[in-house]
Write a structure and sequence with these properties.
The structure is a homotetramer.
Chain A: E1 3-7, H1 13-22, E2 26-30, H2 34-44, E3 47-48, H3 52-56, E4 61-64, H4 69-74, H5 82-85, E5 91-94, H6 100-112, E6 116-119, E7 122-123, H7 125-131, E8 134-139, H8 142-152, E9 156-163, H9 167-195, H10 200-207, H11 215-225, H12 236-252, H13 258-274, H14 283-291
Helix pairs in contact in A: 1-7, 9-11, 9-12, 9-13, 9-14, 12-13
C-alpha cells in the first residue's frame, strides 16, 4: 500500500492532506508549527512527525505544499532534512505554487538521490481542496505523473500534464498573473467610470454581457468589491509572488511583456502598501485611495 | 407615426438600419458613399437622401452610427449639414462608439436647437445587429431614452441607462479597453508559456478552468489565435481609438491608470505596425513577432 | 511708452513683474489675493488693479502668469474679465506653463477682439526670475514675439521662438516631462543600488562621470535627496500638471510614448499621495517608502 | 614581476589589453578566435595562448572582458578551462559588464580554489580604453582591489570601490539603464514635438539650457540623431542586456521600479526589431517608425 508524507498544512495543504487520508493512504504529516501537525494527525487518523526527515522516512510519495520553492529547497538539507530520510525510488510531488527554475534545481538535486520530481501546483482554493475538485498543473515526466495520479486524484479533479519540470509552475504563475492583471485593470476602469458618474453595478452589468468580461468582472468585483466585503481568501502577498514568477518566466523566455512586467510592479507596490494580510482583491484599494473614490 | 433618419451604413450601421426598417418605422438613410445608401434603400423599402440635411428633414428620431464623435460633429454644420434640416423637438441618438467630451459638446450644440441628445453606442457585433440582440449603452436624460426606446428595441435587446450624456460612450470605451487589455496580456502570457515548451491549448484548458479566465481566453484565443484564422470582425484601428477614449476618460477623472494608459500605447504601436485593415486580435502578432514565436 | 499689465503674482510671477517694473515699463498688476497686488505695487512703484478688466485697460502688453491655461481662460469673460478691458491692438503674452490646445482656443478668442497672443512659458525658477535670466519658450507669430521682446528681455535672457501658438507650451511641457522621468527613474535606480549595499554617493559619483548622467543626477540628487533636505522650490502638483500636458501632446500627435504616459501616471500617484505642498523631487519618497529604504 | 592573463579581445578588451602590455606587465592573451589573439600578441609584444587554461597558467592576475557573466562562467570548467590552469593565490578581475548574481556564483566557485574575485566593469568606450582613462566600477574585497589596482591603473583613471562582489556590476548596469531610459524618453518627447511642428534643434537648445537636460540630450541626440548619422559605438543588444540586469537587480532588491521594468521591455522590443548590429541610439528609430516621423 502506498504511504504518503505530506509537508505543509497551510490553508490549502490541510484540506488536501485530509483528502489524502480520507482516500485511505497511510499518511504522515509534518508542519513547521508541530502543534498544527499533531492536531491534524489526531483528527485525520494520520501520524505526525517532528522533522521532515522523520516524515518522509519510508514514504512512497512525498508531497510538499509550502509558500515558495525556496521554502521547499530549504527543507532538503541538514540532519533533519528531507534528503536525510528519503528513500531511493520515492516520488516527490511539490504542490507549492513554485518557480520553474528553483523546481528544476530541486529536481536535479533529487535525481542524484534516485528520486523523481514533479511540480504540481493547484488551483481552486480552500473550498476546492475540501471538495477534492482542485485543478492540478503538472510538470515533469509523464511516467512520474502516472505514479502520482492515484494520490493526486484524492484532491484533484482536473489533472493536466503541462510539460517538463517547471511547466506546472509556469502555467500556474501565468494563470495567476492574468488574474492579477484583470483585478488591477478592472479596478482602473471601474474607478474611472465611478468618478465619471456611472454606477459600477450598471457598468458591470453591461461589461458582463459584452466582450470585456472575465472571471474577475463576473465574480470577484460583484461579490467582493461592490459589496465592500473583501473577504480574505488568497493573500495579495502570494499573488505578488506569483506574478513575480510569471514576469521572470517571460523575461527568461525573451518575450516582450510590458503589461505583465508593469502589473508585477503594481502588485509589489500594493503589497508594500497593504501588508502581508491583505487579500489579493484589495489591490483595488490602492487605485481607489489614489483616485479618492470607492467602487460601490 | 415615428419617422427615423439613419446616417452611417457601415458594418454595424447597415444591419441596425435594416432592423429599424423591418420594425415598420418610416426610414430615410444617408451614407457618405451615396450608392451604398441607394442600394440599401431599394432593398429595405427606405428612402435614400443625398445630404445629411435632406435625410433628417422632418424626422422624429435621427440616428448616427459613424466611426468617431468627430465624424458626427463634422456632419452638423454647413448648408447640407444636419442642423440645416433638423426640426425643433427631434431626438438625436448617436450610436457611434464616441467620446464623452465630444458627445457633451454635440449635446450642448443640439440643445440650442431644441433637440435632445443621447449617446447610445452598441456592442454585439455585426451578427448581434442582424439578430436585433445588441446591447445598447445609453447616456443622457432618462426621458430622452424613453422616447428613443421603441426605435432602440428594434435592434437592441439589453438597453441600459448608464448616466448623463457621455456615460454610454464611457462604458463602451471601458468595456473595449478591458477587451484590449485582455487580448494583449493573454498574448504575452501564452507567448511566454509557448516558448517555455507548454502547449497553448493545454495552458488555455487550465486557465479556462481557473481564476485567470476571460471572454478573451475562453473564446477569442481558441477560435482565432490557436487556429491561426484571425477573422476580421472588428478592426484594430477602432479598438485603438476606443482604448484611447478610455485612457482619456481615466485621465480626465484623475484615476491613476498605468495599465490602461500603457495598453493604449501598445495598441497605438500595433495599429501603426499592422495598418488599418488588421483585426483587433491580430495585435497578438506583434508580441509573436518580437518574441519569435507563434501561439498555436 | 509701453504700458504693461501683469496678472498673477505667484512664486515666479512676482519677481518677473519686479523686473518689468525695474526696466521702466509703466506697470499695473492684478492678483487673485488683492492684498498681494497692493503690497507689490507699493514696493515696486506700480499700480494695483482690483479686477482683471481694470488691470488691462489701456495696456499695450498684457502678461499672465497663472497655474494653468484654464485659469487664464477663466479670467477672460464677465464684466470684470480681461476682455471687458482689453483694447484692440494689444498684445497678450501668457507666461503660464499652459497647454497647447487651451492656448489655441484662447488665441482664437483674442483674435476676434483684434488682440495677438503668444504663449511664453519660462524656465529658470524663482532665482532665475529675480536675476532676469529666465529662458522663455515662445509660440505664436514671429511678429508678435518681436513686439513682446523688449518686455520679455526684462526677465528673460534666452528667448526662443519655438513655433506657432502652443509650441512654447509644448516645449516647456516636454522639458518638464523629461525632468519628471529623470527624477523618477534615478530614484528607482538609486533605491535599488542602495538596497543592494552600494552607497548612493559612490553610485552618483560614477554615474556623473558616465553616460547615465543628467541634470537630475548631477544637481538634484546630491543637493536634495542625499542631503535629505528636499527644499520646496517647484511643486510636485505643478510637475504633475506639466507631464500631464506633455502626455496629452504626445497622444494628440499619435506618438507611441509608453515611458512618458507611464511616468505621467506615477506623478499622478505621487501627487495624490504627497499632497499639494510637496516639492517635485519628493516624488522619490514614494519609491523609498514602497521599497522600505532611503537614498542617503 | 606581475604576470597578467587577459581573456577577451573585443572592441573594449583589445585596447585595454594594449594598455596592460604597454604598462610593462608580462602579458598572455586568449581570444575565442585564435587568430585575433595571435595578431594582437605579435603587435603588442605579448604571448598568445590556445586555451583559457594555458593563458592563465602561472598568472598573478587574470582579467576577463567578455559579453556576459555567463560567457565568463562557461570558461571556468573543462580540461582547457580557466580552473585547470589557475594557481592558488591568483586574483581574478572580471571587466565584463556582468550580472551580480552570476558574479557571486563565480566568486564562490573561485574561492574554493583559493582565488579572489572582483567584478570590475568599465565605462568610457573604445576611445577611453585607448587613452587609459576608463572609469572602473569595482565590487569585492578592498584588499583584492588594492592588489589589482596597479593593473587597473594601466587602463582606468577613475577606479571606484562600489561594495561587495557584484556591486561593480550593479552600478554599471544602473548607469546603463539610466542611459537607456534617457535615450528612449528623449526620443518620445522629441518625436512628439517634431510632429507638433517644433524644430528638434530648437527644442534641444531650450532643454539643454533647462532642467530636462542629460548627457543624452546634450551629446547623443545632437551628434547622432539630428545628424541622422547613428554611428555604431555601443550595440543595442548589449544595452538591452545591461538594462535587463538592472531590472533584475531592482526586482531582487524589491524596489518598485515601473519605469525601469517597462524600458527594459522596450529595449527588448527594439533589439528584436533592429537586430544584433544596431547601435543603442538607434532604439529611437522604433519610436520614429511607429510615429511616422523623423527627429531631424
Amino acid at each position: 500500500m502506498t504511504t504518503v508524507a505530506f509537508l505543509g498544512l497551510g490553508a490549502i495543504g490541510r484540506p488536501m492532506a485530509s483528502r489524502v487520508a480520507a482516500a485511505g493512504f497511510e499518511l504522515t504529516v509534518w508542519n513547521r508549527t508541530p502543534g498544527r501537525a499533531r492536531e491534524f494527525a489526531a483528527q485525520a487518523g494520520a501520524r505526525a512527525a517532528d522533522t521532515p526527515a522523520a516524515a518522509v522516512r519510508g514514504a512512497d510519495v512525498v508531497i510538499t505544499c509550502l509558500s515558495t520553492s525556496h521554502n521547499v529547497a530549504a527543507l532538503l538539507d541538514g540532519p533533519d532534512g528531507i534528503l536525510a530520510g528519503l528513500r531511493r525510488g520515492a516520488l516527490f510531488v511539490d504542490c507549492t505554487s513554485g518557480d520553474p527554475s528553483t523546481s528544476a534545481r530541486i529536481a536535479e538535486r533529487l535525481a542524484e538521490f534516485g528520486v523523481a520530481f514533479i511540480d504540481a501546483p493547484v488551483s481552486g482554493g480552500t473550498s476546492g481542496a475540501e471538495k477534492g475538485i482542485l485543478t492540478v498543473m503538472v510538470g515533469g515526466e509523464a511516467a512520474a505523473l502516472e505514479r502520482a495520479r492515484p494520490v493526486l486524484e484524492s484532491f484533484g479533479r482536473k489533472i493536466v500534464h503541462c510539460g517538463a519540470v517547471g511547466a506546472g509552475d509556469a502555467v500556474k504563475a501565468m494563470n495567476n498573473a492574468m488574474l492579477a492583471i484583470h483585478v488591477w485593470s478592472t479596478g482602473e476602469c471601474l474607478a474611472a467610470l465611478s468618478r465619471a458618474g456611472v454606477d459600477p453595478k450598471v457598468a458591470l452589468d453591461v461589461i458582463n454581457a459584452s466582450s470585456g468580461r472575465s472571471n474577475t468582472s463576473e465574480n470577484l468585483f460583484p461579490e467582493r468589491v461592490l459589496s465592500r466585503r473583501f473577504p480574505r481568501t488568497f493573500r495579495l502577498a502570494l499573488l505578488d509572488k506569483d506574478i513575480g514568477i510569471a514576469a521572470q518566466v517571460a523575461r527568461e523566455q525573451k518575450i516582450a511583456s510590458p503589461v505583465l512586467q508593469l502589473t508585477a510592479e503594481l502588485f509589489r507596490m500594493a503589497h508594500a502598501e497593504l501588508g502581508e494580510d491583505a487579500d489579493h482583491v484589495e489591490a483595488v484599494r490602492v487605485i481607489e485611495r489614489l483616485g479618492d473614490t470607492e467602487i460601490k
